[in-house]
């Protein structure tokens, strides 16, 4: 039975039907825009001397954006980890909080494959027998095959649960690990790993993202060693290590997984997210200058660390505008306009930024002229032709008539726009329609 609450208390059958129809249409539109293409394939492995099934999920924009490269997520235990990772990423895509990535899930559910695949030596903790072959299969066959056939960025993530989580840590024993980020869900650690992994994280020069977790309902033997490893890693102080550990309360060994996956992904891709209220208040608004430089640096990190070359979001432009106005650093509008010209050529954004600079500095005639020039260009985001013409007309009314002496302009601080929230001003569906 469906119970609907409303302020009117009673709803007609027609209104109930219309509400259901709207929800249905929204779900249909969302699924079509943000659905990933999933392919089930088989790799014939020379290392394993067998065929291994894999599931590949391509991002929603993969076929549309022919030049974009995407980070790669390799899932061990792909049989049951694929769906929770897929769901979290799909949700993140919808709000533009997580980047689109390529998922490759390895099947390990036949004939107890996961145990054999992850075999390690009892004395050294290193991969042995089939474990050694599986280790080489991922690095020497699987990843090169995916790179050859799909547009992958150089940023790679690996994830696993218990046995597979412990095994994947072995890639950190390499001087130049093939993975940049590790999501280790309640790992069953091979011999000596709680001491060796902290040593390796301290020694590796490249930037590493490392996430691991346990819970108060986890297996005691595993939990004790996981906690010991956390204590050792916490002593490492280096800017190239992005580390997070979580101990979930009221969760079991298996139920911690749906809690940990979004936490891990949002940690790894925190720099990707649009400028939030917290980031604005704690990192941007307090700067004495360099607001545009901050925005440029934010997207440079995305390109250098994650291999993502992205167009700067309109939401982030608005955040920098707000910081410039709040701190009366009006000359920075010139730099922001140059950045707008690179990211949104042929649109009114660059001229809009320049017009704001002239207006705030009291050069009303130039502001009017620039708003009128913006009026002739393409609309973008929430900037419209009506907005430009209305602003120009309002400023024209303040200009002196012929023969009338112009008074010294009084520059008033314009109220700061509401700082963009974590949720973009437009829904992704609306942005897709504009494109």
TrEMBL record:
Region (Disordered): 398-435
Keyword Protein biosynthesis: no
Signal sequence region: 1-35
Sequence ranges of Acidic residues compositional bias: 409-420
TPR repeat coordinates: 348-381
InterPro entries: AB_hydrolase_fold, Esterase-like, Mycobacterial_A85_antigen, TPR-like_helical_dom_sf, TPR_rpt
Keywords: Signal, TPR repeat
A Pfam family reported for this protein in Swiss-Prot or TrEMBL: Esterase
Keyword field contains Signal: yes
Protein name (record): Alpha/beta superfamily hydrolase
Organism, scientific name: Flavobacterium dankookense
Taxonomic placement: Bacteria, Pseudomonadati, Bacteroidota, Flavobacteriia, Flavobacteriales
């Amino acid at each position: 039975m469906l119970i609907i609450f409303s302020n009117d208390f009673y709803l007609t059958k027609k209104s109930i039907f219309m509400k259901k129809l709207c929800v249905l249409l929204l779900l249909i539109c969302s699924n079509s825009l943000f659905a990933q293409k999933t392919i089930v394939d088989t790799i014939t492995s020379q290392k394993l001397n067998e065929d291994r099934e894999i599931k590949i999920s391509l991002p929603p924009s993969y076929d549309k954006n022919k030049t974009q490269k995407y980070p790669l997520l390799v899932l061990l235990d792909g049989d049951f980890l694929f769906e929770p990772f897929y769901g979290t990423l799909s949700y993140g895509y919808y709000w533009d909080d997580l980047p689109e990535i390529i998922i490759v899930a390895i099947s390990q559910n036949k004939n107890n494959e996961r145990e054999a695949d992850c075999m390690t030596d009892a004395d050294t903790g290193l991969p042995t027998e089939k474990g050694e072959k599986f280790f080489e299969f991922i690095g020497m066959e699987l990843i090169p095959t995916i790179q050859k056939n799909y547009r992958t960025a150089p940023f790679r993530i690996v994830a696993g649960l218990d046995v597979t989580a412990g095994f994947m840590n072995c890639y950190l024993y390499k001087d130049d690990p093939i993975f940049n980020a590790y999501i280790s869900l309640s790992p069953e650690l091979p011999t000596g790993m709680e001491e060796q992994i902290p040593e390796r994280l301290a020694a590796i020069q490249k930037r590493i993202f490392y996430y691991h977790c346990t819970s108060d309902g986890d297996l005691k033997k595993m939990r004790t060693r996981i906690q010991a490893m956390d204590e050792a890693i916490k002593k490492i102080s280096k800017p190239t290590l992005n580390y997070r550990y979580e101990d979930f309360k009221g969760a079991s060994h298996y139920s911690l997984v749906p809690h940990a996956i979004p936490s891990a992904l949002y940690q790894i891709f925190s720099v990707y997210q649009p400028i939030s209220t917290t980031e604005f208040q704690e990192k941007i608004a307090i700067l004495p200058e360099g607001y545009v430089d901050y925005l440029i640096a934010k997207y440079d990190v995305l390109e250098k660390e994650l291999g993502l070359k992205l167009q700067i979001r309109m939401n982030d432009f608005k955040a920098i505008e707000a910081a410039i106005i709040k701190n009366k650093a009006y000359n920075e509008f010139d730099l922001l306009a140059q950045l707008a010209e690179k990211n949104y050529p042929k649109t009114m954004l660059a001229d809009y930024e320049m017009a704001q600079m002239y207006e705030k500095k009291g050069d009303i005639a130039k502001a009017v002229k620039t708003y009128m020039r913006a009026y002739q260009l393409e609309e973008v985001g929430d900037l419209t032709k009506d907005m430009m013409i209305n602003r120009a007309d309002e400023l024209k009314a303040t200009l002196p008539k012929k023969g009338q002496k112009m008074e010294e302009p009084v520059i008033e601080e314009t109220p700061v726009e509401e700082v963009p929230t974590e949720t973009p001003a437009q829904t992704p569906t609306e942005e897709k329609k504009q494109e």
